[in-house]
Amino acid sequence: MSSLENLSREDRTFPPSPEFAAQANATAALYDEAAADRLGFWAKQAEYLHWDKKWDQVLDWKPPFAKWFIGGKLNASYNCLDRHVLEGRGDRVAFYFEGEPGDARAITYAQMLHDVKKATNALIELGVKSGDRVAIYMPMIPEAAVAMLACARIGALHSVVFGGFSADSLITRINDADATLVITADGGFRKGAAFALKPIIDEALAMEPNNVRNVLVFKRTGQEVPFNSAIDIWWHDIVDRQSAEHTAEFFDAEHPLFILYTSGTTGKPKGIFHTTGGYLTQTSFTHRMVFDIKPEKDVYWCTADIGWITGHSYVVYGPLINGTTQVMYEGTPDTPTKGRIFEIVEKYKVTILYTAPTLIRTWMKWGEEFPKAHNLTSLRLLGSVGEPINPEAWIWYRDVIGGGKCPIVDTWWQTETGALMISPLPGVTACKPGSAMRALPGISAQVVNDEAVALGNGSGGYLVLTEPWPSMLRGIWGSDERYQETYWSRFEGKYFAGDGAKLDEDGAIWLLGRVDDVMLVSGHNISTTEVESSLVSHPNVAEAAVVGATDAMTGQAIVAFVILRGGIPSVGGDELIKDLKAHVSKHIGPIARPSRILVVNELPKTRSGKIMRRLLRDVAENRAVGDSTTLADPHVMKLIQSGLASSTSDD
Ligand code: WT7
User: Fold this and answer.
1) H-run or E-run covering 200
2) In the predicted model, is pLDDT for residue 648 greater than 80?
3) How confident is the prediction for the chain on average, in pLDDT?
4) Residue nearest atom 14 of ligand 1, based on CA coordinates
């Protein structure tokens, strides 16, 4: 990819409403302040945290190794909890927990602190020490956050493994981090039934030699689980009898906080490693500014699972540091009905909702009757993360969920970046639907070509970050070499994010998906994201995935898989396909016209909701489908293939 074609254009802009701007946390001055003195700016944001000892130096940068707030001492758990209780905010609700079966609990900051202190004392009794690694494999319940904060409190690193991962993935992660303790639950609730977690731990631990000494098991569902009293301990047996006193110890700003594995598209999972001071500074700052948090008034809900970075930064650390009241939901969006999320928004009068484009497009597919059946007027700001949001999905989110009045923040970042990097500032930025707009104050991003030369407006290439940032990964656990090689070798001295991006005529940043997903059609680089967004802008399409399939004539040919929208009458089969091709041709240009369009009911997605285009490329090129073990639903590929056997849709 030398540069990406700058094909589509988006002329709609949504300036902030004067009412929102008048009360916004963020101001345009933040950009100037950060530009004038970047390190001073971050130091000012760090002062928001409680430090037992202030730092001596803001940044030590020996590319690609950064240290922030050197000499400073703080405790993550203290910043999230003790501080609020000591300053009189103990009675504020930290979590409104909503279990999938309908059980609900409101947990205050004082209660969280009490629970975390007891869990901490249990960890100490189990011999966990500062620097040890603890694997956490739990459903989305408050005890998952309690477990994380108990680790942080004593300087042990948590390594949360998403509860949907298999025994195989689990043992790889346990052993890569050399964890000595696993914290889990008997199981959790999902899609109307209890699922098991504990037996998967047993299976994992039997697969390979390991150094796990104990498995701490929280009872969530009450199902029968195998129990080996030599290493297994019930949470209620050990945590409940602990003292509720524990004085937090303060650690170095660069003390390791956690490891979180990201699978990437190929290869062994990478243990992304984050430290304390810089990470807490940037997560809390971005949470205050980008979500416009007013902790006394807002009810914030980030729908991400704790097993992902979004759950770490924007359910646990950022929001708790800011004293936020949030909703935590255990289950799936369609149980017991497709209106579940909207029912919960109504119940708790949620004001800020942060979710992923995959869910927004799923809602579009289900139809408007579900959101329309609930009162969503409490919402005042909406966020999106995880993938590019198609302009049409953005507009739908704004109109149908946000009642046309909520600013939308499309937030670009990664497990590696630890916190938001590119996003509008609500109340400041005039937004274009589908664009993450510009780098946040204190962050330096560029779009470059193959030769690492920064491109001007109106061109596309690779997204890079040119200056270190406080919450940046400090490495890949156990491999500095792989860290250098993966992120810092492609463009000398710049962090390569792996994403394609373009700058439009006004300099707004458009994320174009992973660079592996760019297509080369008759010598033109075309982004899958742009063609997908064009398809989604057709009234009949809810979701689209586009791949380049090898083609004798054009190098690659564009093949699209589309899911149709619910509740909208559609012209029939071949007519619709023709119509969709003409639509893309008109919208982007004839070069982007798909050569084949296949209507499907599902798309293959990872457990974090990202489309696995590699598998669709196998289908488009008539190959046996490759490794699909990381799919959220392993049956999807079979469904897609059997559905396609009957349909032909070539020109
Ligand atoms: C990749 C990182 C960061 C939390 C969730 C995912 C894609 C993320 C956006 C966005 C376009 C986005 C990128 C990025 N991505 N947010 N707003 N617009 N693309 O974390 O699993 O580490 O994935 O997700 O491709 O590189 P992750």
Assistant:
1) helix 198-207
2) no
3) 93
4) 414
Judge whether 550 and 613 are in contact, CB under 8 Å: no
3-state SS, 408-445, equals EEEEECCCCCCCCCECCCCCCCCECCCCCECECCCCCE
Residue corresponding to tokens 């010598």: 523
Q: How far apart are the C-alpha atoms of 348 and 298, rounded to whole Å?
A: 10
Cβ of 415 below 6 Å from ligand 1? yes
Q: Which atom of ligand 1 is nearest to the CA of 410?
A: 17
Tell me which of 283, 499, 517, 612 to substitute to probe ligand 1's pocket, judged by most ligand atoms within 8 Å of the beta carbon.
499
Between the alpha carbon of residue 180 and those of residues 132, 156, 312, 348, 429, the distances in Å are: 7, 11, 21, 39, 47
Which one has a higher pLDDT value, 39 or 10?
39
> Model's pTM, two decimal places?
0.91
105's CB contacts (< 8 A; 6+ apart) are 95, 96, 97, 142
626-646 tens-digit pLDDT: 877 777 787 888 878 776 654
Pocket test residue of 355, 382, 412 for ligand 1, highest count of atoms within 8 A of CB: 412
Alpha carbon of 414 to ligand 1 centroid (Å) = 5
Contact between residue 52 and residue 73 where contact means Cβ atoms under 8 Å apart: yes
Q: Supply angle C-alpha 509, 464, 56, rounded to 5.
A: 110
Residue 2 clears pLDDT 60, i.e. is over it: no
Ligand 1 within 6 A of CB of 358: no
User: Would the CB of 305 count as within 6 Å of ligand 1?
Assistant: no
pLDDT in tens, 255-275: 999 999 997 545 678 999 999
Residue type present at position 320 = L
pLDDT of residue 631: 79
CB 274 within 8 A of CB 471: yes
What's the gap in Å between 483 CA and the centre of ligand 1? 18
Picking from 305, 193, 166, 188, the residue whose alpha carbon sits closest to that of residue 628 is 166
Q: Whose CA is nearest to atom 1 of ligand 1?
A: 414
Of 383, 378, 419, 420, the closest CA to residue 398 belongs to 383
Taking the centre of ligand 1 as the mean of its atom positions, its distance from the CA of residue 316, in whole angstroms, is: 19
> Which of the four pLDDT bands, split at 50, 70 and 90, describes residue 147?
very high
Instruction: Decide: 16 in ligand 1 pocket, CB within 6 A.
Output: no
Lowest mean pLDDT among 324-328, 364-368, 516-520, 559-563: 516-520
Enter the tokens of residue 259.
């490891």
309 lines ligand 1 (CB under 6 A): yes
Please tell me the predicted confidence (pLDDT) of residue 195: 96
Q: Percentage of the chain with pLDDT > 70?
A: 96
Separation of alpha carbons 8 and 195, rounded Å: 45
Q: How far is the CA of 509 from the centre of ligand 1 (A)?
A: 14
CB 279 within 8 A of CB 317: yes
In sequence order, what are the beta bridge partners of 618? none
Res. 567: pLDDT tops 80: no
